[in-house]
Amino acid sequence: MKRVSDRRWRPGETVLERFHRPDGSIGQVHPLRVLEDDGRVLLAWLPAGTPIVGSRLADGRLMRDAPLDQRFRIPRVPVPDSWHGASTLRRIPEDEWSSVWWFFDLEGRFKNWYVNLEIPLGRTPGAVDRIDGVLDVVVEPDGSWRWDDEDEAEAAIEVGRLTLEQFDRLRAEGERIGALAERGAYPFDGTDTDFRPDPGWPAPELPAELSPRSGEGSAPARR
After folding, report:
1. Which H or E element spans position 183?
2. Which residue, of 119, 170, 214, 221, has the fewest CB within 10 Å?
3. 3-state SS class at 214
4. CA-CA distance, 105 to 80, in Å (whole number)?
5. pLDDT by residue for the chain (223 residues), tens digit each?
6. E runs forming strands in 60-160
7. DSSP bridge partners of 42
């Protein structure tokens, strides 16, 4: 049976998407504008330029700037950041090990889908909580698809960031997503590729206790 939460959000509300680490600490936090929510599937919007809580390695480097064998060994720290490069419409189901992100360029044109493979942790009063599964799937408009970050997933397993059992389930979820893409089945059937946010919508905001206090980082939108 598909799980339905008794915690639902109304259109227009801001909800946080929080990415937990396996040790229980919270890494990145993304504020989202709610479009629809039925208690199981949240559909929400994150426009480019929105302030987020990002993360860096404790030595100040971005993760991508560190050699692969160091990326999951050096502790990470939260930093003020912003989401840029692409706006995203996100479908986040409570009972699936993935969320689907529609990527739109800065002119609002649909680019592709990015499927973030994740471990769902449920909902709290103002947030949907997930563990990033490292391994991801990219789906192009023609339905072709490919794995992304396979090398990082292997490195994460080596240091215990992911277990083999979690990785197997994440990979199975990726295969399921790929099969949907090949068939052109929802959400890869063109639904919402013409989405346009209401120009009068305010950007989603972080709560005051999480708002950046100084400067901005340069975390790119994940691809």
Report:
1. helix 164-183
2. 214
3. coil
4. 23
5. 466 667 899 999 999 999 999 888 899 999 999 999 999 999 999 999 999 999 999 999 988 899 988 999 999 999 999 998 899 999 999 999 999 999 999 999 999 999 999 999 999 999 999 999 999 999 999 999 999 999 999 999 999 999 999 999 999 999 999 999 999 999 999 999 999 998 888 889 999 988 755 334 333 333 2
6. 76-82, 87-93, 98-104, 110-124, 127-139, 145-148
7. 37, 92
Nearest to 52 by CA among 18, 21, 91, 103: 18
32: closest CA among 57, 54, 50?
50
Residue 62 CA to residue 59 CA, distance in Å, equals 9
Residues, the chain: 223
Q: Nearest Cα to 142, choosing from 77, 76, 71, 190?
A: 190
Structure tokens at 125: 């009063």
Tokens (6 digits) for 108? 């609002």
- In the DSSP assignment, the letter for residue 187 is T
End-to-end Cα separation, the chain, in angstroms: 32
Q: Are 126 and 78 in contact (CB under 8 A)?
A: no
Q: For the whole model, what pTM was predicted?
A: 0.90
3-state secondary structure of 55: strand
